[in-house]
Amino acid sequence: MSRADLDTAPADPDRARLILVATPIGEDGDMTARALETLRTADVIACEDTRVTRELLRRCGIEAPRLIACHDHNEAQSAAGIVKLIEDGAKVALVSDAGTPGISDPGYRVVRAVLDAGLEVGALPGPASPILALSLSGLPTDRFVFLGFPPRKSGKRQAFLTPYAELPATLILMESPQRLGETVADALEVLGDRQAALAMELTKPFERVFREPLSALHARLAEAPRGEAILLIEGAKEKKARTNKYAEFSKAPKRG
After folding, report:
1. Is the pLDDT of residue 197 over 80?
2. In the beta sheet, which residues pair with residue 81?
3. C-alpha closest to that of 71 among 40, 110, 44, 124
4. Rounded distance between C-alpha atoms, residue 152 and residue 241, angstroms
5. Confidence class for position 168, pLDDT limits 50, 70, 90
6. Does pTM surpass 0.90?
7. What is the rounded average pLDDT of the residues 151-177?
8. DSSP letter string over the chain?
9. All domains of the chain, ordered by start, with CATH?
10. What are the two backbone dihedrals, phi and then psi, of residue 219, each rounded to the nearest 5 degrees?
11. Predicted confidence (pLDDT) at residue 165 exceeds the cutoff of 60
12. 63-84: per-residue pLDDT in tens?
């Protein structure tokens, strides 16, 4: 790369492109200045739920531009429309109801469609509940796997967890309060009684994090809790290769 490649003029902030904008998961004060400015100046905002986004914009004092729906049930069709908007010169911001678009929320198909069309995609850093929960968990953070929402039925859920039983990495799952106890029971069955953490209602007034073995969590969840939950489970212990200290002496001598 030449010096000329590095010394380029700043890009036009209003140029046509897709921008992924993370939104608060519970506390409006977590909205960054860059996110507010991007939503304020976007030509179009693509939202998981236009009602939720319109209310967020109202609380932030932003006059809503054109809002279009982009959710799990229409993402493929919406992606094509977003590509057309950008091709026509629009700056499009993409948000989910809370957190970072594409992380257990709509967004991946839109990003893929925009990239496949040869158009620009940018992103602003901001709230992401799985990462926040990981940092609070007290579990190892050097290696982790985000699994999203597991299957709803026990048999499929156990089959879903089985491939990760020997993985030496913290597992992160999202789950509804109604199925949380069953999911912990299945994790206990498949993974054993590992250390775990349960993060509830992150950044909200009733935020709490329980750090205890899966068996203790299962007992705690005899009654379904309220609020959004993230379950983190300790990874498998790494198996050290066994070495034979006499191996060097047992080798056959080399023939001259």
Report:
1. yes
2. none
3. 110
4. 37
5. very high
6. no
7. 97
8. --HHHHSPPPPPTTSSEEEEE-B-SS-GGG--HHHHHHHHH-SEEEES-HHHHHHHHHHTT----EEEE--TTTHHHHHHHHHHHHHTT-EEEEE-SSB-TTSSSS-HHHHHHHHHTT--EEEE----HHHHHHHHH-S--SSEEEEESPPSSHHHHHHHHGGGTT--SEEEEEE-HHHHHHHHHHHHHHH-S-EEEEEESTTSTT-EEEEEEHHHHHHHTTS---S-EEEEEPPPPPPPPP--TTHHHHSPPPP-
9. 13-124 (3.40.1010.10), 129-233 (3.30.950.10)
10. -65, -35
11. yes
12. 988 999 999 899 889 999 999 9
- The DSSP secondary structure of 114-138, one letter per residue, reads HHHTT--EEEE----HHHHHHHHH-
Residue 232 CA to its chain's centroid (Å): 13
Paired with 195 in beta bridges are: 213
Looking at per-residue pLDDT, the higher value among 225 and 7 belongs to: 225
Cβ–Cβ < 8 Å for 46, 95: yes
